[in-house]
Every structure is written in structure tokens, then in C-alpha cells.
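Hi X.,

You mentioned you wanted examples for the new student's onboarding notes, showing what a folding record looks like when two proteins sit in one file. Here is a clean example. The first protein comes first, with its sequence line followed by its C-alpha cells.
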Amino acid sequence: MFSLQKWGLGAVCCLLLILTACGGQSSAPQDTNASGPSGSGSTASGKLKDVKVVLDWTPNTNHTGLYVAKDQGYYEEAGLNVEIVQPGEGGADQMVASNAVPFGISYQESVTQARTQGVPLVSIAAVIQHNTSGFAAPVDRGIKSPKDFEGKKYGGWGSPVEEAVMKSIMELDGGDVSKVQNINMGDADYFTAVKRDIDFAWIFYAWTGIEAEQRGEQLDMLYVKDYSKSLDYYTPVIVTNEATLSSDPELVKAFMSATAKGYQYAIDQPEKAAEMLSKAVPELDKELVLASQQWLSPRYQDDAAQWGVQKAEVWKNYADWMYERKLLDKPLEAEKAFTNDFLPQDGKS
């Protein structure tokens, strides 16, 4: 249903189109709308503050903590009335960077591109500690290692990042990326595309991989993090903009306190969390949501001290990798791209 190309690389491409429009400013004009970043917590009259958080794509288990926080009243306890919205034509990054909404779901690769172009996005939490994406192929295609990509048809979006990652891991295995045929998948989902005209694609296992399991379709999955430490980056992340951080840090703190509770609940009780997501988004396949949640919940925090924590070395390693491959115009100032300052102290909300 959802490929990484649609979730991640497509978002990067959309962001690149709006970089110039953002003008590279370090802050955006203040939005006086209630959903913007001015003012935090409850108002003087005791009313909840209206706040929007924009998703990167269609709701899925990457987002469960948001829905749990809303369902369980964690946002209300923090003085917030949070509305979870889907991105407009320009994408979530553009909406957050322009200060149209204070919070959104993005990706380390997208934030890295943005920061080096002067776009004021800042990551405030890693939704998942380790990269769960990779190249997936039906087992009958015989793709057991990156070298096996040779002579095969890859379905993607034509992004330079795709070819760079493929080239990087193929070279480690003695492969030649020029021997891979690239095909634009368009709007086709993974399962349609592999039956029609491709052999493999880049997916998030937590959704497309689990869906394959449910369909009884066996996959060979090559996780990119297994081939390079630099490719074990954060995807997805929760982002805000520099204007919100500077003008209303209490809002960010309140939002992250409640959101962290939501993800901790999803870690501790994946089945109940899956029910909440399915209740909020009834058009999703309930069995897929449950299976995906059971697979993903232990991976939200994984080996980190607490959910959401980000490491400077992860940001630097991936940005250096991108810069070395001419995917960035200049090196990233990693320490400005993310912050852990708004996560609950000592893991407590």
C-alpha cells in the first residue's frame, strides 16, 4: 500500500521544489491563527489551545503515538486541542517550514536537505530509533544481496538519493549500479508494480513488508542500515520550525510531553494502541494495523534511553554521506538540525 518512495523520497522531491519559496529565512512570520505557534497550553479562560500536526502521508503505524495521545486525553491534559491533518499539495515540510502549522512528520533526509538550503525545520524527536527501510523483492526474483540488483528492474521516483544509496551498498558487494534498470513507479503501489513491471523497490517493512506477510507473499528484504552505519538514519521524525522554538518553547514542551506519552503507551500496549488508530482511521485494514503495530512497537525506542532521543553522530554520519556523494550543496550543521531539549526529562512526561 505505502512504498518508501511515496512516504520519504517523494517528500524530499516535493521539498526541493519549495526551498526557493521559503527564501532560506531563519524564521517565518508569526501566524496569529489559533493553530499556529503563538501562545501555549490553556488560555486565560481555561480553554484548550488549538494546535495542528500534519502527517507526512496517509495515517499509519508510524503515527500511532499521536492518535493514542489524542484518544487518551494526553493532549487535553497538556492544555492542547490537537488536530491531526494530512499534508496539502506542498507537503508537510513546506507547511511546517512556512509556519502554517507548528508540528509535522518528516524524515532525517528531508530535514537535512532543507537545513542546507536555509529552510528552518528542526527535528524534535525520532519516531523510530533505527532505519526500518530497505530494498524488497519477491523471493522468485533471486535478490539475496545488493550485487543481485544487477540486471533487475528497480521501481522508484528517479531521485538522486535512491541511486546513491543503491550504488553505495552495491559497491560494497562488488556490484555495478549502472546495470540496474530504473523504472518510475508512478502511482502504483508496491504489489501492483512487482506484478507489472519491476523486480524490487525501496519500502518500509513495518507497513509494506507486514502487508506482504499477510498476503502470503514472501519477500527478500535488504535493510540499508545493515550495509552502512551512515544509512542508519532517523525516519520518520517529528519536526517544528525555528520560529515556534524561539517564540513558544512551552508549546513545544507541552506537545512533546503528551506525544511521548502516546508513543510510550504504544510501546507498552501495541494491541490497544492499534485499536485506537483503527478507531480514528476506520478505512485502514484493522488486521494490517494490528500486525504492523506489533512489529513496530518495540522498534520505536529500541536501544535508546527513552523514546524520541536523537544522536548528533547519526545526523552527522548521514549528512556527511550525502555531502560526499554531492547530494548536498554544503555540509550540514548537525547540532542545529535537531534537539532533544523538549523531550520529557528522564523519560517521564
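Then the second protein repeats the pattern, sequence line and then C-alpha cells:
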Amino acid sequence: MGVAMLHAGFISFSSCIPSFSSGGLSRRCTRFSFTKLHRPLAMSSLSNDPIREWILSEGKANEITRISPVGGGCINLASRYDTDAGSFFVKTNRSIEPSMFEGEALGLNAMYETRTVRVPKPFKVGPLPTGGSYIIMEFIEFGASRSNRSVLGRKLAEMHKTGKSENGFGFHVDNTIGSTPQINTWTSDWVEFYAEHRLGYQLKLARQQYGDSTIYERGLRLAKNIRPLFEGVAIEPCLLHGDLWSGNITSDRNGEPVILDPACYYGHCEAEFGMSWCAGFGGSFYNAYFEVMPKQPGFEKRRELYLLYHYLNHYNLFGSGYRSSAMSIIDDYLLMLKA
């Protein structure tokens, strides 16, 4: 059976208010390559079915017994491959080059190597012979109940504490947040990184896509004046999942938390809570997290600054329903900072 006949499921996308219609932002990705800092996930040669070929060779399977769709989202097609050597999870996308999946694989691998919170181990990324690309990873059987939020908080803090970078803030490749390009150029200063590569980039997209000069000008004014919010804070580059909302959090059959679909980079640990408006963390999560990673001075004053990046991204992806939330945060900070 050819690849084109195998994939009929979907994988999740980072919107927690699905009633908004999709915006017209096109998918743009820079061609990425794996760095020597990570064990490479080899690119496959083109064949009639590179997915089947890998599973029956490097995947150590003798037989694929079943292929079934996995439902749940809107960007990629997803399937479960059952074999005599276990199950594999496969995502494909007919409209992107392997760069997007390469970024995801590097992020998953970086989190996997911390041996803290559970993530699916990535195995293979490659191009499809008829266009598009695929990623093969570990299949994790999900449990019926939600993960314990206090356990998630502790394990996430352990990941932040373990996953460090000697290169500063950023990541080894650019990747995507949803389908929006996420720029991860290494930067020694966190405030500069967040102002330019997070807020600044999203504000430019809003101006390009909607001609929104108001949010662009006010947002840039804020981005240039956020440094006082970080006074007295020692910021280390921590490995972040980057897109942690309820749709990317689940549990395995033993009830242990599992996190999926990352947009990884090394950043200020508090930036991990930028999607908290639809993550359902709660007091038990934060209490457990701060037992491992103590709360930093001014945490409450910075919380909405980190929400802003994701509100801007949702504005760019899904339209004006998110503009007012982003604008409100910008105006409140401009007033607070007297900028």
C-alpha cells in the first residue's frame, strides 16, 4: 500500500478557542540541518514508501500488521503503525519540506535526553517521494485520565533545571509555533531575545498581514521598554517546550504526564507559562513547580508579558478575535512602565 493511502488522521494544533477561523498566514520555513550537538536523525533516501522501508529495516520490524488513523487536529496527518516489533507514530504533511519536522525532532530529542517529563522519542525525519515530509516517533499509549498536575509541575521544573544551554537564548534551528515561523537566533541577552525574536517578530507579522500599524507601533514601544520588569532577576537559558497548552499535555497508561508537539528553545523558565490561559495548570501545578524552581522576584508582573507572545501568534493565525487581548496587555504595560 502506498504512502498516499495510509494517512487519514490529524494531529493537534495550538489553538484553544477553535471557533475562530484560520487566518491566511502561509507556512514559511527555513531549510534546517541537524547540528553536531545532537545525535542526527538520519534523512531517508527517496523510495516508493520511505516510512514502510524504515520501519521494516531500522525499526527492526518484520511485518506491519495494521495502519490506523489518529485523530485530533488540523495541520498534519497522523497514523499509528502496529508491527511485530511494537507501534510507531507517524505524522505526514504534503505541503512542507522536512525542515518543520526536523525542528520538532530536535526539540523532542532535547527534552527526551533530560530524562524528566515523558515525551515521544523521535526516530526518523524525511521527504515523501510525491512531495511533503514525514516524521516517525515512539508511539505512546495514552491513559484515560488527565495527568496529575502536581507531577507535571515537578517534572517540568526538573526539565527546566536540567536542560541548559551554553550558547545563550535560542535554539539550534528555527522552528515553528503552530505554523508560524519561530526565530531562534542565539542571543546572549534574554530581554533582547524576547523583545526582538518573540514580540518584535509577531508584531511585524501583524503589520504585514493586517496592516495593523496601531498594535505594531504600541507593541514595539513596549518591546523597547521591558527591561525594568527583569531587574534583580538572574535568568538562565532553560530548555522550554514552548507551546504548553492543554492540547499538548496528556498522560500515559500509568498516569505519568506526557507532553507533545513542542516549539522548543532555550529561554527564561517563566516563558513556559505563556499558554497558561488555556493550559489548566492551577495551584497544585505551580506549587510543585516552584518547589523545584523557586519563584523569582517580579514573577506576577511578568506573567502577562509572556502571554502576549501567544496572543499575538493567535491573532496572526486566527484573526481579530485575539487582537483585543493582545492590545489590552500592551496598553496595560505601557501605562505601568510609563513608556
